[in-house]
Amino acid sequence: MDARDELSLVFQALADPTRRAMLSHLRDGAATVGELAEPFEISRPAISQHLKVLERAGLIERTATAQWRTCTLRTEPLDAASDWVERHRDEWNERFDLLDRRLRDLKGTTDA
Amino acid sequence: MDARDELSLVFQALADPTRRAMLSHLRDGAATVGELAEPFEISRPAISQHLKVLERAGLIERTATAQWRTCTLRTEPLDAASDWVERHRDEWNERFDLLDRRLRDLKGTTDA
DNA sequence: TCATTAATTAAGGAGTTGCTAACATAGTGG
DNA sequence: CCACTATGTTAGCAACTCCTTAATTAATGA
């Protein structure tokens, strides 16, 4: 993966439990890298890389204040991901509903 | 990635334009591997591997009829993914609303 | 039986991920 | 200036991704 499309980058970023946990943490407000790293038993470089993936996907923003990097969540990419999933899920469910109605109609005419 | 959790497998499966296009195709009804492969310029084995990823994530089901493998979409995993995204997006938006209200309140008291 | 069609498995290569240890950078405060 | 704290970068490695070509399995039909 390199110059992948935005949606792929977002889904890719979400495809890791550690990164999802980080986003969950950020849901409760901005946090420094140290705070985000604290619950995990992995090294700081590993944390840095996870943050880089999240940043590349546009899911977080990092601002430097003194020697602390504060991370904040951004929701726009989540919106894009959400839209895709919802759209597909909904349209498929519509198909099921349609099928369901058709089956019911068929049963109705057969029974009548 | 190997014995990853379900949610990671789903997001991982969605993190590829070819696979998302395949799912979009399947939204319009079941299809054989050949039909799914048709819009792409990649080899059949590559298609097979993409389908394997989708199957591992529980997003499709394959049934063999004669020499054709019919693929059908499954939405349960999409529901799980959707839930995660929605939950996070919503709670974050709530936070923004709260912040917004506070700022407005603050402004109100300052103005008064 | 043999050729054809549909799809998968096998083997391998280029590039990426996710981790580690070691080193570098940058700001704070004695 | 020097030690300390917070974070990032580099180098290296095992595992995985996504693709390929070649061989294989499985069903159809002359």
Automatic annotation (TrEMBL), chains A, B:
InterPro entries, A to Z: ArsR-like_HTH, HTH_ArsR_DNA-bd_dom, WH-like_DNA-bd_sf, WH_DNA-bd_sf
Cytoplasm as UniProt keyword: no
Domain spans labelled HTH arsR-type: 1-93
UniProt keyword annotations, A-Z: DNA-binding
A Pfam family recorded for this sequence: HTH_20
PROSITE patterns: HTH_ARSR_2
Keyword Calcium attached: no
One example GO MF annotation: DNA-binding transcription factor activity
Protein name: DNA-binding transcriptional ArsR family regulator
Organism: Agromyces terreus
Phylogenetic placement of the source organism: Bacteria, Bacillati, Actinomycetota, Actinomycetes, Micrococcales
